[in-house]
Design goal:
Blueprint lengths: L6 H10 L6 E7 L5 E5 L6 E5 L5 H10 L1 E2 L2 E3 L2 E3 L5 E2 L1 E4 L3 E3 L8 H9 L7 E13 L4 E5 L8 E8 L4 E3 L2 E5 L2 E5 L1 H6 L5 E8 L3 E4 L2 E4 L1 E12 L12 E4 L5 H13 L8 E6 L4 E4 L14 H12 L3 E10 L4 E5 L13 H7 L5 E5 L16 E8 L7 H5 L8 E2 L6 E4 L2 E6 L13 H15 L8
Helix pairs in contact: 1-5, 5-6
Bound molecules: 2-oxoglutaric acid and fe (ii) ion (FE2).
Length: 459
């Protein structure tokens, strides 16, 4: 592609999105929250331990009360000790004194994983399981099963029980991180808990335990409409990894780009392949809803674009083989049933929701063979394309039956989409007519403020 003179500005936009890890982790004091009650089995016997001082015998009793941990392989619930060797209690079998709000964990995780102005969205933490890992226990690489469209992430809390090994390894887009809670916890001067929260499409595994007991609580994180945190006084948390990029740097880079009169003389689309994947309910998800559940730097793009009154539309990117062009389309459909050979023709004749992509610097596509006019838009890619070719093949790694999750029965799968930031011609860059419905209540004031010149704050 011919390089445009404004390419350095596009590169600055890309750089401003940064590459923070897709997780955050920290420690906080166990304080007097170390107590756990649990039911031993079908009878009424109850067990008790305090994680601040639990000895080997108490931990063995807890482990004995647990069930074997299963996992999801496609639609099946599987017990397979070559894939997951661990023990677990469901939430109807135990009561822990850990309070993720007063411990400061909920606030810390929300600040880190929700981008931009956090107070317009909130995370709901749903306790999921208590897991016990003994010597040689592990959980091989998997992605936590998406349970709803607003599933956002997972939180793992590790108690200060003596153990060696069992690091949590995270992988995303070719990068890898290891968080060894046993070594983090052993360095604390008083009994503490270590927490790690990651976006839901991040692959993770628990490495084999060499000795001791590793006990964790897991939570599913859902994104909800704004609800301010209660005023409970919170304990301080000590961050170990942070995840959020800097909105202000991105906003400055975007402003700079838009001020260049050579950029999009007739308006166009600034396109971003998203860094994260989002839960999609097969044949049900309205792509628009993805706007409300964006993670990390994907959310920064939307927040900043909205603050500059630019419309942001989630689109799928489809290649039209017949005409050798890309098409952006703002809706999902299960294309199993319909075979669309020429998307350009389809858009020209049947449906003008989508448009043909003309990458700036490339020759204009030629549609002399079509009777009707096709909508074509100038597009500049900032982050690499995430292509959507075929509904099921793209959404399910290795096909539906080969998906490794932490629970069977998939109602949602993770899908790749792109964000199209609609840009008007020089002097009239704004394209946002109306703030999307669900955001209106919480964001109207913020946008108004922003338009009057106050800059986005980075957190
Ligand atoms: O216990 C842990 O450290 C992680 C467990 C996990 O990945 C899961 O339950 O899905
Ligand atoms: Fe998991």
């Amino acid at each position: 592609m011919a390089t445009q003179h404004f390419q350095p500005k596009v590169d600055a936009l890309f750089a401003a999105l940064g590459k923070r890890p897709p997780f955050c982790t920290g420690v906080t004091s166990l304080d007097n929250h170390g107590v756990l009650f649990y039911r031993k089995g079908e009878n009424r016997d109850a067990g008790y331990l305090n994680f601040a001082s639990a000895d080997e015998e108490a931990l063995q009793d807890l482990s004995a009360a647990c069930d074997l941990a299963s996992f999801g392989h496609g639609q099946q619930t599987v017990y397979d000790e070559t894939y997951r060797k661990a023990r677990k209690l469901d939430t109807d079998r135990f009561a822990s004194m850990i309070d993720i709000h007063s411990s400061g964990i909920a606030q810390h995780v929300s600040d880190e994983l929700l981008e931009g102005k956090n107070f317009k969205r909130t995370l709901r933490f749903e306790l999921y399981k208590l897991n016990v890992y003994e010597k040689d226990s592990f959980f091989k690489p998997h992605t936590d099963t998406p349970r709803a469209e607003n599933m956002f992430g997972s939180l793992v809390i590790t108690f200060p029980t003596p153990h060696v090994g069992g690091a949590l390894v995270l992988r995303h887009n070719g990068d890898e991180w290891a968080v060894d809670s046993s070594s983090i916890l052993s360095q604390q001067s008083k009994p503490s808990i270590c927490f790690i929260a990651f976006y839901s499409d991040v692959e993770h595994e628990v490495l084999p335990l060499q000795s001791g007991h590793r006990v964790t609580l897991t939570y599913n994180l859902y994104i909800e409409k704004s609800k301010l945190y209660s005023e409970i006084p919170q304990l301080p948390t000590i961050p170990i990894h942070k995840s959020a990029p800097d909105c202000l740097v991105f906003k400055t880079a975007l402003n700079d780009f838009l001020q260049d009169p050579d950029v999009f003389p007739n308006g166009g689309v600034l396109a971003f392949g998203l860094r994260f994947k989002y839960p999609i309910i097969l044949s049900e998800t309205n792509l628009e809803q993805i706007i409300h559940v964006l993670k990390g730097c994907d959310a920064t793009i939307k927040d900043v674009a909205h603050s500059l009154s630019l419309e942001v539309v989630p689109e799928v990117l489809i290649h039209d083989n017949e005409n050798g062009v890309d098409v952006m389309y703002p809706q999902l459909c299960d294309w199993d049933g319909i075979h669309i050979a020429s998307w350009a023709e389809y858009l020209a004749e049947k449906d003008d929701l989508g448009f043909v992509v003309h990458e700036v610097g490339e020759p204009e596509p030629d549609f002399d063979n079509l009777d009707e006019e096709v909508k074509v838009k100038d597009v500049i890619w900032v982050t690499p394309k995430t292509r959507f070719t075929n509904f099921k093949a793209t959404f399910l790694r290795g096909g539906e039956d080969d998906y490794y999750g932490n629970e069977a029965g998939i109602t949602c799968v993770y899908g790749s989409v792109v964000l199209a930031v609609m840009v008007g011609p020089p002097g009239h860059r704004e394209t946002l007519q109306e703030i999307p419905k669900r955001e209106k209540l919480h964001e109207r004031d913020i946008y108004e403020l922003d338009r009057r010149g106050s800059d986005l704050e980075s957190d």
